[in-house]
Structure formats: C-alpha cells, structure tokens
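G., before I forget:
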Amino acid sequence: MRARQFRRLANRLFVDRPESVLRRFKGRSHWPPLSLRRWVGSWADFDADGRWLIDQLSIRDLLPAGAQVLDVGCGCGRLAMALARDPRVAPLGLRYHGLDVDKPSIEWCRRHIGSEHDGFDFEHVGLRNRSYNPSGPLDAATYRFPFADFSFDLVVAASLFTHLVAAEMEHYLGEMARLLAGRGTLWATFFLFGNPAAPPDRHPVDFPHRDGKVAFHSQREPENAVSFAESYVLEVAAASGLELAEPIAYGPHDHLFFKRAE
Ligand SMILES: C[S@@+](CC[C@H](N)C(=O)[O-])C[C@H]1O[C@@H](n2cnc3c(N)ncnc32)[C@H](O)[C@@H]1O
C-alpha cells in the first residue's frame, strides 16, 4: 500500500511534471498525465483512440439524442474526453456516467471533464482489484451498481473484462444486463480463446496459465490480463438475457456488442 502511494508520488514528480510541459507544448493539455494514461494503454495518442471509439459508436447509431451512457471502468476518461470534445456529440445532449475503482483517475476526470462539460459525472467505487485497487474494501463479484433497472441506452466496458476474474465477469454481465434499457446495447471487449475460426496470436499478451474456461497472463497477479473461453462468455451472457447484436470483431481486443435477447 505504502509502496503504491510512494510510486504514485514519484510518478507525479518525476514523470507527470516534465511530461505536462511537453503536452502543453504539443497542444495536448487536455490529456490526462502519463501516470494515468499508461494504465489505459493509450498513452501515445489519447485523441486518436477516443475518436476511434466514437466512430465505432456512430457507425452503429449507438449515440441517439439524449442517450444515457454508462462507462464501467472508465479509467482516465478516454471515451469521456472524446465524447465531451467531439463537435458531433455536443448537440446530442448525452448523459454520461463513468465509474472506476481507481481514485486518481476519477478525481482527474471530475476536475477536467465533469466540471467543464454538462452531463458528465464520475464515481469512484472502492472495489478490490489486485492490479488497480488492491486495498479496495468491496467485492466486485457481489457489487450492485447504484442505478435502477433499464436505465442505460449504452453500457461500455472497454478493457474491463480483461482485468476481472471469472466470478466478477459473471456478476458484471448480469448487472449490465439489468441496467440496459429495452433497446440498449452493451459494448464489451474481451480476450477470448477457444474459437478455431478466430485469428490466432492476435492479443497483445499471451496467457500461459490456463484453468479451464479462464486463462491468465500472470499467475502472481491474475487481474493483470485475463482471457475467457468464448463459449463461456456467450453462455454467461445468454444466462443474463443477452445475445450478440453482430458477429464478434476479433482483434488485439475482441469486441462484442450485446443486446437484450429476444
Ligand atoms: C485497461 S483500463 C481501461 C480504461 C478505459 N475503459 C479505457 O478503455 O481507456 C481498465 C480499467 O478498469 C478499472 N477496473 C478494474 N476493476 C474494476 C471493477 N471491478 N469495476 C470497475 N472498474 C474496474 C481499472 O481501474 C481501469 O481504469
């Protein structure tokens, strides 16, 4: 715990301060500091990554006017910042809710997105995750999200299930299904295995530690990167009342778009 706090302080002083000068110089003052960006994998081009997310939503028509959006594991605001700054999105009057276990990321999002853009709020939840919030008091395998049933048109879980263990994944899919409005969509990314038709070796890390339907990159720190059998994820989704809205898009992250089962 102390070591983690010390690392964060050292990062702020010796990484973030110098990098903030560079960011200002390059017109990127709106980016989160490097010590937060490095956790979301888009440290090098935060804007391009965010634009790509919005393009994926736009081509599927998933951002209707007035949409209620929930971003679970929102990190340091990759999607939120893109939504807040994109001129195509501003007239839509979205309501965006970001939730994460990493307090510094949520504090940064509140200060730099929530306070500057209407309709964006961020919540820190003290859920335990050995990689992101090891001392969190709450259990993600039983946590009930603080929202009413059917309240969201779009739920996003980008690079979230790649850091959850099996019981948490099962529970979260159930919760997300509960929260989806009738015609709502869940966009979730996974590292899937077990489908011989999917391209091999497509993920950025390997998963040498397999335990049945789940595989890990690191045995010592399982949440560092988690891979699930495709059939397992689809079974859990079906049991939660979800079905695929389109074929899985396989890639470095596998993208799954779910809707309520008919
Ligand atoms: C790889 S980052 C992805 C962040 C963001 N979705 C993005 O794509 O830029 C994974 C995020 O999931 C968050 N996280 C880990 N466990 C979580 C949990 N049980 N509930 C919600 N968020 C969680 C982490 O704090 C981290 O911000």
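The first helix runs from residue 2 to 25. The chain has one domain: 44-260.

More on Monday.
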